[in-house]
């Protein structure tokens, strides 16, 4: 929990400083749907109404993501209990929250934690329908899927695949297939109000965006980056491969030792992760690169929870098919080492890049307050993260910013002057060279 913010988080904090109508209007010029920003603004309005300090608001915004991550864990714990597996034990807690990428996105001021919770709720309601065949669970599943689609477009893709796969599952089980089929139609219809805006956003991305072209390396990274976290550098793939091998072993153990209901749901979760990633890759090849690994975080979070549930069950049943005391101990030691490396790396990364800079940021903001000028001139040679972080904090003390010869594409990934100067409305337009 630190007050320093990187570029995308600065975008978030700038956007939620506007009113609800402007949030929707400004967000329509960007590439994401607006539900996360609206919920975050509401959360901050009831938790930080007593202060104008952006430092405090940033901490509460991070707390919001963490609360969502905890709720995701609790929803998934209830889901696996419905599958006949104990949930919410210490191994699951530690394994889930210390897993690669979970630690990062559980406190990041972006929409990924909310999208993961909504997708977990979709899975939970579909599983309830599988157990009871009560139509109300289909209604709730479609409702949460629709909210997910208004949170992130690839959460919508994952939710769509989930509804589609469960439709076939229910058909095989001879349930009322029309119920979920109607639900899928309602899911698509509920997205229509934002659909026109989404098409406009897609056109913007097609013309200009920062995501690089698809090649073999990017395809591999799209599958494994979340398993190695996003800043593991040259050793990331090796680290991810070791973790994936451990998880494959765990999956095989689960298919040999766990209940049919759990195995069926695990298969669906694995399929959704693979299909969501493949959908992003196919669209990126056929239209334009629009997909990076973190866009699959919502279904990845669910997948990691299931993996940690399996490992927790392995520890409870060391003597089982494809396992003994020795192999179970090896799994426990290896997972501890892997998670320990992730914690150490991410902790070091966060400390060096954010925590250490917190005092510098506080000093800079204090200097800006004491500056008698109402317009603060920022050096354009600073990093994009530093520039836009300062812009947001300067706005919080009611001062304006001028950045000479500034290229807004460094912040937005595209040269959208209209969005930039309306979003960061305390920045004066860059003077001509």
From TrEMBL:
<feature type="transmembrane region" description="Helical">
    <location>
        <begin position="322"/>
        <end position="347"/>
    </location>
</feature>
<protein>
    <recommendedName>
        <fullName>Glycosyltransferase RgtA/B/C/D-like domain-containing protein</fullName>
    </recommendedName>
</protein>
<feature type="transmembrane region" description="Helical">
    <location>
        <begin position="109"/>
        <end position="126"/>
    </location>
</feature>
<feature type="transmembrane region" description="Helical">
    <location>
        <begin position="238"/>
        <end position="256"/>
    </location>
</feature>
<keyword id="KW-0812">Transmembrane</keyword>
<keyword id="KW-0472">Membrane</keyword>
<keyword id="KW-1133">Transmembrane helix</keyword>
<feature type="transmembrane region" description="Helical">
    <location>
        <begin position="180"/>
        <end position="202"/>
    </location>
</feature>
<feature type="transmembrane region" description="Helical">
    <location>
        <begin position="297"/>
        <end position="315"/>
    </location>
</feature>
<feature type="transmembrane region" description="Helical">
    <location>
        <begin position="268"/>
        <end position="291"/>
    </location>
</feature>
<feature type="transmembrane region" description="Helical">
    <location>
        <begin position="138"/>
        <end position="168"/>
    </location>
</feature>
<feature type="transmembrane region" description="Helical">
    <location>
        <begin position="59"/>
        <end position="77"/>
    </location>
</feature>
């Amino acid at each position: 929990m630190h007050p320093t913010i990187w570029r995308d988080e600065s975008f978030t904090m700038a956007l939620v400083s506007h009113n609800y109508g402007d949030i929707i209007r400004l967000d329509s010029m960007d590439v994401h749907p607006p539900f996360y920003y609206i919920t975050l603004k509401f959360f901050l309005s009831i938790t930080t109404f007593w202060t104008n300090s952006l430092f405090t608001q940033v901490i509460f915004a991070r707390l919001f993501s963490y609360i969502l991550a905890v709720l995701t864990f609790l929803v998934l714990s209830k889901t696996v209990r419905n599958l006949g597996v104990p949930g919410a034990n210490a191994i699951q807690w530690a394994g889930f929250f210390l897993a690669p990428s979970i630690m990062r996105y559980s406190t990041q001021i972006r929409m990924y934690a909310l999208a993961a919770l909504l997708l977990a709720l979709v899975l939970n309601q579909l599983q309830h329908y599988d157990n009871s065949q009560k139509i109300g669970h289909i209604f709730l599943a479609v409702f949460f899927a629709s909210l997910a689609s208004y949170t992130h477009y690839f959460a919508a893709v994952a939710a769509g695949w989930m509804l589609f796969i469960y439709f076939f599952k229910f058909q095989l089980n001879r349930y009322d297939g029309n119920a979920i089929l109607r639900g899928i139609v309602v899911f698509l219809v509920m997205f229509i109000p934002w659909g026109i805006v989404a098409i406009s956003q897609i056109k913007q991305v097609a013309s200009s965006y920062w995501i690089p072209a698809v090649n073999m390396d990017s395809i591999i990274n799209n599958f494994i980056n979340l398993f190695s976290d996003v800043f593991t550098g040259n050793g990331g793939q090796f680290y991810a491969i070791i973790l994936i091998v451990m998880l494959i072993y765990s999956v095989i153990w689960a298919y040999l030792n766990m209940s049919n209901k759990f195995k069926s749901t695990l298969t669906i979760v694995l399929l959704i992760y693979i299909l969501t990633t493949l959908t992003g890759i196919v669209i990126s090849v056929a239209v334009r690169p629009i997909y990076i690994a973190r866009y699959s975080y919502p279904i990845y979070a669910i997948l990691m929870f299931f993996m940690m549930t399996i490992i927790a069950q392995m520890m409870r049943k060391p003597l089982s098919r494809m396992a003994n005391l020795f192999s179970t101990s090896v799994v426990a030691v290896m997972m501890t080492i892997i998670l320990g490396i992730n914690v150490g790396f991410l902790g070091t990364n966060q400390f060096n890049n954010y925590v250490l800079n917190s005092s510098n940021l506080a000093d800079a903001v204090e200097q800006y307050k004491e500056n008698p000028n109402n317009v603060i001139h920022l050096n354009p040679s600073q990093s994009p993260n530093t520039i836009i972080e300062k812009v947001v904090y300067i706005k919080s003390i009611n001062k304006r910013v001028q950045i000479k010869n500034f290229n807004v594409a460094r912040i937005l990934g595209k040269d959208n002057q209209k969005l930039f100067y309306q979003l960061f409305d305390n920045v004066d337009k860059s003077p001509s060279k």
